[in-house]
Design a protein that fits this description.
The complex is a heterodimer of chains A (554) and B (244). With 554 residues, chain A is of the alpha/beta class. Chain A has helices at 16-27, 43-53, 68-80, 92-96, 98-104, 117-128, 195-201, 213-226, 244-260, 279-287, 302-307, 314-327, 344-356, 374-381, 399-411, 413-417, 422-439, 446-476, 482-521, and strands at 4-9, 31-36, 57-61, 86-90, 110-112, 139-143, 146-149, 171-173, 176-181, 184-186, 208-210, 231-234, 267-272, 290-295, 331-338, 362-366, 386-388, 391-393. Chain A has a domain at 4-149: 3-Layer(aba) Sandwich (Rossmann fold), CATH 3.40.50. Chain A starts with a strand and ends in a 33-residue tail after the last helix. With 244 residues, chain B is mostly beta strands. The chains are: A alpha/beta (554), B mainly beta (244).
Chain lengths: 554, 244
């Protein structure tokens, strides 16, 4: 009998971490089942589904701290429902917090540390053969004398791994099938806040590994031919290496292989560091179909660059966005405006950068403290780390900066962090525009394009204005005066909310215009296998309100 | 996707009035957006934000009770570094009988000295598993024949609680929608609502009924939750009224 392995995690998109695991255990003769667990409200459905499967092993992916409680909390509910399978946790959070998790959650049998493909397959074989799991390289389990650490498992060459499990139909964006993939794992840089760097540095192997171009194109060809994928979203944390020559060689090879495989009319999305943006390289990538680059700006303040260990200069940041702007490549960035050493001057420097590049969609937030990172260690050594292993926090050294962070986090919470906040909507509408430009060129024109850039700029400048006012407030007022701070924050909250109403209204109208334009040139629905009555939005699903029905008469 | 988002989506499929942003980007992640991480919420237990103390005095005896009203209870406690004119006589708890709090009894040695301090070192069990420890110093004010107890605040700066407020979407009938203010904040809080158009039945209730206008367009309800000295939080929800 083929034994089932239940793999649980978020599946808001095709979850590559689960799907690589699924492919790996399938190769060993097990039957993987992907169990999406996208929100706390899914828990009953998830528990019932797993209980019904009666799997041999349950693997729960716990990559991020924000949802760690929900994901780990699932284990107790599974046991209460009578699930007797071996339950193992994996992912970044579990890799670092294995001791706390195994201490606090007796229902968990093991933790898989670092990359899990080979380790999970070993666990499944041992459990099936009724052999002990303890001691498997890459695992930590409980023993009579405490934790049993199986030691680190050497990281495998990426070309040796089977392609991820691609069951299901791909997501569509404006009728274009989209699929995520990775051409590398890890990052060559060592930013202090970065969990990717921490995760790979802690593993037994290089902290940045690449797949061969041949291996990548083989997977893309399979996706192109079998599922019709045209939009390839590279989820590499960093698509490039710190060598223009090597990047050019690799990308030229990729381009040649794509052409030989007949993979034309495709689009690419990548992420990179600003230091690796060069005109020649990105002109090449654009010729290969690059329609979007996420550029890790993170900070443009001198002290932020040092405390976050960015190893870039403000000039690198400026040059990167200018090169992409000149090449007409859509990009976006995020600013870690607040970090433990942030100063008012540093905030001012970041605001200047955001103002200068307000035509590029951006967002801003605080550098969060993730497990295993240098930032956590530094704060711990300084006695500044607050919270617990579920959620670490800190206060900035300058109380005025700390209060500024609190004010803007409160006032911009809806704009910056909600999935349907205007910051994300602007990113989405700009991406839709690039998809339209690439795949429906007759529906696109430069005037329309400028209209969307203008919306981006107005949203960006509105954020900058609110931040500047807040900066002026904390510079001039007594930030320990709770009533004054609250009054200011309340007024700012209302201003941001009012502006967002106008921006969202505008964004929604633009979205309707994109649909209208595409329908005017495309033979809808022939372009898509999606039977929904409207074109799916840039990130996805839930499209039922694009054509608004007549209101019910009360 | 949170429960609220799910509710919004479910509502979006209904006729007449639609949640405004449904159908636009929503972070489902196909390469369009890279949302920033919202600030992690440290648990109220480990930051000690909801640690409350009360004191009563009877001649030369002071009784102090300390409890945590957030998600976890105290499992162990010790008192150290007592200073000033008091002597610790008794520590009762933490036990289930004391609702996982502790009771302290002090003997006042000198009525001329107005203040005393002591330090609590406590372990808390968070409801779903892990333990954490906090240390907090309390001050007893014995002046005027009474007694008050205050602690060094977990957070002396304003806007200390960053517990988000979330609007939960309730029943919908035509242009009338029911909205509920929700928050994980454990202390006292007050909701207030404003809308860009239409009418609210009670703008300060936690659960309100909003009657949207007939005019087509996108309309917004804004919830502001006031946590008192701990700050405030805001959430909004938008609806679109379609053309008749």
């Amino acid at each position: 009998m083929v034994r089932r392995v239940a793999l649980v995690g978020a599946e808001l998109e095709e979850n590559l971490s689960l799907r690589y695991l699924a492919a790996s255990v399938a190769e060993d003769g097990f039957r993987p089942e992907l169990i999406p667990f996208n929100a706390a409200a899914d828990v009953e459905r998830v528990v019932a589904r797993i209980a019904a499967l009666d799997p041999l092993v349950v693997g729960i992916s716990v990559p991020f701290q924000t949802r760690a409680r929900e994901l780990v909390g699932l284990v107790g509910l599974l046991r209460a429902r009578g699930v007797r399978a071996h339950v193992t946790l994996g992912g970044h959070f579990a890799t670092f917090e294995y001791a706390n998790l195994l201490r606090d959650f007796p229902a968990v049998d093991s933790v898989v540390r670092h990359e899990g493909e080979l380790t999970l397959s070993d666990i499944c074989r041992r459990v099936r053969d009724e052999e002990p799991v303890a001691g498997i390289p890459g695992t930590v389990t409980r023993g009579a004398a405490g934790l049993v650490d199986g030691g680190r498992r050497p990281l495998p060459p990426l070309d040796d791994l089977p392609f991820p499990d691609r069951r299901g139909t791909p997501r569509e964006i404006l009728g274009i099938a989209s699929g995520p993939l990775v051409g590398s794992r890890g990052c060559y840089a060592d930013c202090s806040f970065c969990c990717i760097h921490a995760y790979h540095r802690n593993a037994d192997g290089p902290r940045y590994r690449t797949r061969s171009p041949e291996n990548i194109v083989a997977e893309m060809r399979e996706e192109y031919e079998r599922r019709g994928v045209r939009l390839f979203v590279f989820h590499d944390d960093n698509f490039l290496v710190p060598s223009l020559r090597r990047n050019l060689e690799r990308c030229r090879r990729l381009k040649k292989l794509l052409q030989e495989a007949g993979l034309d009319e495709i689009a690419l999305v990548i992420k990179c560091r600003p230091t690796d943006v060069h005109t020649e390289l990105f002109a090449l990538l654009r010729s290969m179909g690059l329609i979007r680059a996420y550029v890790g700006i993170e900070t443009n303040s001198d002290e932020g660059i040092v405390s976050l260990n960015r190893r870039v200069t403000p000039e690198d940041n400026r040059r990167a966005l200018t090169v992409l702007r000149d090449l007409g490549i859509y990009c976006s960035f995020n600013v870690l405006m607040f970090d433990p050493e942030a100063t008012l001057d540093g905030v001012r420097a970041n605001l200047g950068f955001m103002q200068r590049f307000a035509d590029v969609p951006f967002n801003f937030c605080r550098a969060e403290v993730y497990a295993g990172t240098p930032l956590k260690r530094i704060l711990e050594e300084q006695g500044r780390l607050r919270g617990d292993y579920w959620a670490w926090g800190y206060e900035m050294r300058d109380p005025r900066v700390e209060v500024l962070f609190r004010i803007v986090t409160t006032a911009f919470a809806g704009r910056n962090f909600k999935s349907d906040g205007i910051a994300n909507l602007t990113l989405g509408i700009r991406f839709d525009n690039e998809v339209m430009r690439r795949f429906y060129p007759d529906a696109w024109d430069p005037v329309w394009h400028e209209t969307l850039i203008d919306l981006t700029r107005r949203v960006g400048l509105d954020s900058v204005r609110g931040l500047e006012r807040s900066l002026a407030f904390v510079s001039a007022e007594d930030v320990r005066d709770g009533d004054t701070v609250k009054r200011f924050t309340m007024a700012l909250c209302r201003e941001v909310a009012r502006a967002d109403l106008e921006f969202v209204t505008e964004c929604k109208a633009f979205r309707g215009e994109i649909v209208r334009r595409i329908r005017s040139v495309a033979d809808w629905p022939v372009l898509s296998r999606d039977t929904a009555p409207a074109l799916a939005s840039s990130v996805g699903m839930g499209v039922s309100t694009e054509i608004l029905p007549v209101p019910i008469q009360i | 996707m949170g429960a609220t988002d799910k509710a919004r989506r479910a509502a979006a499929g209904m006729a007449g009035v639609a949640v405004a942003t449904a159908g636009l980007s929503n972070c489902d992640g196909t390469g369009a957006v890279d949302p920033p991480p919202p600030p992690l919420q440290c648990s109220d237990v480990s930051t000690g934000q909801n640690l409350f103390a009360q004191a009563a005095r009877d001649d030369s005896t002071v009784l102090v009770t300390i409890q945590n009203f957030a998600q976890g209870g105290m499992t162990a406690a010790s008192i150290t570094d007592t200073t000033g004119p008091v002597q610790l006589l008794l520590v009762n708890g933490p036990t289930p009988d004391t609702n996982r709090g502790i009771t302290l009894v002090f003997h006042v040695l000198d009525f001329q000295v107005p203040t005393a301090t002591f330090t609590l070192n406590a372990t808390f069990q968070i409801s779903d598993g892990p333990e954490c420890t906090i240390t907090r110093t309390f001050t007893l004010d014995l002046s005027g024949g009474g007694v008050t107890v205050t602690s060094d605040r977990a957070d002396p700066l304003p806007l200390g609680s960053r517990a988000p407020a979330v609007i939960a979407l309730g029943e919908r009938r035509g242009h009338r929608v029911e909205l509920e203010a929700t928050t994980s904040y454990a202390g006292r809080w007050q909701a207030s609502w404003t809308v860009s158009a239409g009418t609210l039945d009670d703008p300060t209730a936690r659960r309100v009924r909003w009657t949207l206008p007939d005019e087509p367009g996108v309309h917004q309800a804004e919830l502001l939750v006031d946590y008192g000295p701990d700050g405030l939080a805001v959430d909004t929800i938008m609806f679109e009224v379609g053309a008749a």
